[in-house]
Amino acid sequence: MDISAASAHPTPGLDLSLFQQTSHSPSYASLTQNFEHAGELHDYCIPVNSYFPPTRVMDALYRKLPYALKYYPSSNSDLAALVCAFVGLPDPACVIVGNGSTELISWLNTVFVQDDVLVPVPSFGRWTDEPQGLGRRVEYVAYSDAQQQHLSAAAFVQAVKDAGVRNAVLCNPNNPTGSLLGREDVIWIMQQLRHLDTLVIDESFIDFSLPEPPTVQDVVADYPNAWVLKSLGKNLGLHGLRMGYAISCPANIARLRRHLPYWNVNGITELLLKLVVEEKAAYEASRRRVLQDRDYLHRALQAVPELTVFPSFANFVYVRLDEAYDGEELRNRLLLNHRCFVRTCGNKVHGSSQYLRIAARPQPDVDYLVAALRYELRQAAAA
């Protein structure tokens, strides 16, 4: 696929000032004027599952939607049982459900992380920004180009010990770098850091890492200071419903549940959970298709000489743009001229706008983005 000057044209109505108004990225709703122009935007920013849920799930959801809106949802413990049925966990007493994983992050930062914390960076902003806002001392250990954006288990543990912190967070895979540690490495980390007050393993993207994801959700409850955090919205391709859950020992779950509102998760989310419990095979098939898309995206980006492409084990790929080009300008030109929405990482701790996180999409969408990238890079080089 090639893009010519005739096919590249500015898109009216896109407000670039939105990027200056948030520490994350502008919402899809704000960029598309409350979804009025949703079909015109090519989204490579938000890492979603492009193949789930099936149409039959959405049809059933729409049929029952009036009742989910009218009546109260079930209790958190009932929703935990639904999550367990879907993901194959045996004990709902070890699971708590949140209004998205970010709600649980906030509660963990408030209730359990009472002291200083170490976070590898760059990372998801709620793990770096929120503890600072709560007055915690936040220490960092950095991913680096020299290590291909990989941080070993030994390096992480040593950084925690050197910093003298009482809490630590490990995103596995990491967002935005896509770095991954194996299951045995993470178990070793939990063993080495038993002395901490709290250790969180954020597995929000782990379902899109490998055919057999190296999750530790089945053993984390054996470690009294440890948590695993998961995002159902990302997995199921429905970020807007805000679905997340955490796993820990029953005592931790009971303590955290005392702080949550009784109905912290809405009835639409409960309805969806009941529907997807019957769709495990469809979800597994969708997950594996996303892995194929990620690998295709990785290969396609490697063919763009102006990009350094790092190994990725998530449903996105992390790249560095050559210093001869400006990352924010490239993002803006992709958005204005081609309606391609990508994420730069300049608003992250230890981040830079020369680094982009590009979400996996089906092959035709990737081909369109790569053609747009090549066109804009040619234009910038000729300027």
Automatic annotation (TrEMBL):
Alphabetical keyword list: Aminotransferase, Pyridoxal phosphate, Transferase
Cofactor(s) this protein cannot do without: pyridoxal 5'-phosphate
Pfam families per the UniProt record, alphabetical: Aminotran_1_2
Gene Ontology terms for molecular function: pyridoxal phosphate binding; transaminase activity
Keyword Transferase in record: yes
Gene3D superfamilies referenced in this protein's UniProt entry, alphabetically: Aspartate Aminotransferase, domain 1, Type I PLP-dependent aspartate aminotransferase-like (Major domain)
Aminotransferase class I/classII large domain location: 52-373
EC number(s) reported in the record: 2.6.1.-
Family assignment from sequence similarity: Belongs to the class-I pyridoxal-phosphate-dependent aminotransferase family.
The protein's name: Aminotransferase
Gene source species: Hymenobacter gummosus
Organism taxonomic ancestry: Bacteria, Pseudomonadati, Bacteroidota, Cytophagia, Cytophagales
